[in-house]
Amino acid sequence: LWAVGGGSLLLLATSAGRSFDGPLRSTALLAPHGGAEPGGGPNGFQINKTAAYAGIDPAETGEEAWRLVVAGRTGTVRLARADLLRMRQHGAALPIACVEGWSTADQAWRGVRLRDLAALVGFDGDPPDVFVESLQRAGSFRHGALRANQVADPRSLLALSVNGGTLSPDHGYPARIIVPAAPGVLNTKWVARMTFGGLA
Ligand SMILES: Nc1nc2c(c(=O)[nH]1)N[C@H]1C(S)=C(S)[C@@H](COP(=O)(O)O)O[C@H]1N2
Ligand SMILES: [Mo]
């Protein structure tokens, strides 16, 4: 009973921050961060959960520490961020549309096509579905599954930069998913592992 009471008090306290624009606004943990105005936040648009909130340690996202693990039909490859930047880069203008009730205008994303990553692990023609896992250890948004048609879409990227700058920590540095016509929750941030064909 005590735990339940504490939970609703916390909910009250966190949602109360939504209606204020002053310093109190930072207590609205569940509301979009980065400011009330549409252009607020790093890279020019709002944040849902910050890197700190998600428990992302900057030590595990550095050039030396971070590797993207890509698994598929022909095995597993490990790629540094520099390796990803050496692959062919593509752009896509796509919004973040969160089911919590906000969305951004189109943002200019740049990175590697999901279908090109599938090709690295043995799926050259028709890419399969993919299971994406984040560095984040807890919380239901730490992983997501994308269907084959979402992987095949040329606008579906593992983004490395946005709006002309390197992805900020709060928007998912070193790399995050961005796909068209999908709820924001599928745009996994701080990606650590991608398993192609694992859901078949
Ligand atoms: N690892 C991880 N990825 C995540 C989330 C999260 O909490 N953890 N939140 C998701 C949700 S609900 C949304 S709406 C978008 C928000 O992206 P943004 O913070 O860059 O605006 O990221 C998605 N990716
Ligand atoms: Mo969201």
Structural account:
The chain is α+β, with helices and mostly antiparallel strands. It has a domain of 139 residues: Alpha-Beta Complex (Sulfite Oxidase, Chain A, domain 2). It is 16% helix and 26% strand. The chain contains four helices and twelve strands, in the order αββαββββαββαββββ. The chain has a five-stranded mixed beta sheet. Strands 3, 6, 9, 10 and 11 form a five-stranded antiparallel beta sheet that branches. Strands 4-5 form a two-stranded antiparallel ribbon. A hairpin with a 2-residue loop joins strand 1 and strand 2. The site of molybdenum atom (MO) has 6 residues, from loops. The site of ligand MTE has 19 residues, from loops.
Q: Could you describe the largest sheet, including whether it forms a barrel? A: 5 strands, mixed
Strand numbers in spatial order across the main sheet: 2-1-12-7-8
Runs in which pLDDT lies below 50 for 5 or more consecutive residues are: 1-31, 34-38
Secondary-structure element sequence? HEEHEEEEHEEHEEEE
Small-molecule binders here are:
the ligand Nc1nc2c(c(=O)[nH]1)N[C@H]1C(S)=C(S)[C@@H](COP(=O)(O)O)O[C@H]1N2, molybdenum atom
| Name of the top-level CATH class of the domain at 58-196 | Alpha Beta
In helices, the fraction of residues equals 10-25%
CATH superfamily of the domain at 58-196: Oxidoreductase, molybdopterin-binding domain
CATH topology of the domain at 58-196: Sulfite Oxidase, Chain A, domain 2
Shape: globular
Give the number of helices: 4
Please count the beta strands (DSSP E, at least 2 residues each). Answer: 12
Distance between the termini: 43 Å
What would CATH call the architecture of the domain at 58-196? Answer: Alpha-Beta Complex
**Structural class of the secondary structure composition?**
alpha+beta
Round the mean pLDDT to the nearest integer and report it: 85
Multimerization state: single chain
Beta content: 25-35%
Alpha carbon gyration radius: 18 Å
